User: Fold this.
Amino acid sequence: MIRAVRALPLLLLLPALLTACGAEKADAGGGRAAVGGGKTPAGGVRESASAGVEASELDGRLRALGIAPELVYVTDAPGFTLAQQSVGVSGDDGFSVSYWAENGAVLHLYAERGSAADCPPGYVCREPVKGRVVRVGGEKVAADVVRGAADAVHRPSPAELAGFLPPAPTATAPVVRGDLPSYGDGAPDNGVGEGG
Assistant:
């Protein structure tokens, strides 16, 4: 009886130990994703079922965010991981993204229409194509790391792009509200009656 009682905590702990298997951290090293993907642009491992997404669908997802597809550039920076929640618009239709490191350092990348001649202080600018400028800056980042990230700026492969873009919006039916009157300005009926 005593042996069975001692073995019971181990048996209860076994499912928790098995659940934790395979929960290791993503690789923080650099490396660009190959088509068919495995790694995000900054090195974090990401298995993506959407790696085979059509370029037209990816362009549509970018346009839905207000981003011109031709202005999307990413970088590789050893020790930095792309922060998916930072993906957004810069300026009118440009692209912005940030990369983070475990020590609290952050790299910011902005791609817009313009010229590298207008590079603000504290940033390293590259002009990959005439009329497009990519600015890279950082917080708590050494100047040589910022320069290296600027030198590694490239257009993402479809697998890279599919790995960090939010999913395509799905069409939904309009919500039918029961509290809107069929006449007047459409304000909800908040009538409570006498003594209300």
